């Protein structure tokens, strides 16, 4: 995810547009998948720290996590696509501008880390 800007306002929130209920499933549709991913992570930690380490179980959990991440990625991209479809061309341009600014900020942070 990941990859995440959780807790930070994104381009869509900056535009003050509501997308709740617009997308089939929406955020509530991914809560179950997110919970499954968290449960899988906990199970993986238990295997790492416990005395019953079984490599086959690790592989199974890794496959489950990959599947859950795929579902979340598809849902996120679908939501972004559907949201962009209802924006005016001016709003779409603003989203593009905000996304570009965000990417420049991320690049600057990465450059700073490399300099350290």
Whole-number average pLDDT? 81
Helices and strands, in order, run as HHHH
| Main pleated sheet | none
Shape: flat
Total DSSP E strands: 0
CATH class reads: Mainly Alpha
CA-based gyration radius: 18 Å
The end-to-end span amounts to 26 Å
Uncertain stretches of 5 or more adjacent residues: 1-8, 17-24
- The CATH architecture: Up-down Bundle
Q: How many domain units? A: 1
Structural class assignment: mainly alpha
Q: Write the CATH fold name.
A: Four Helix Bundle (Hemerythrin (Met), subunit A)
Helix content: over 70%
* Distinct helical segment count: 4
Q: How much of the sequence is in beta strands?
A: under 5%
Tags for this model:
116 residues; mainly alpha; Four Helix Bundle (Hemerythrin (Met), subunit A); 4 helices; 75% helix; flat; disordered N terminus
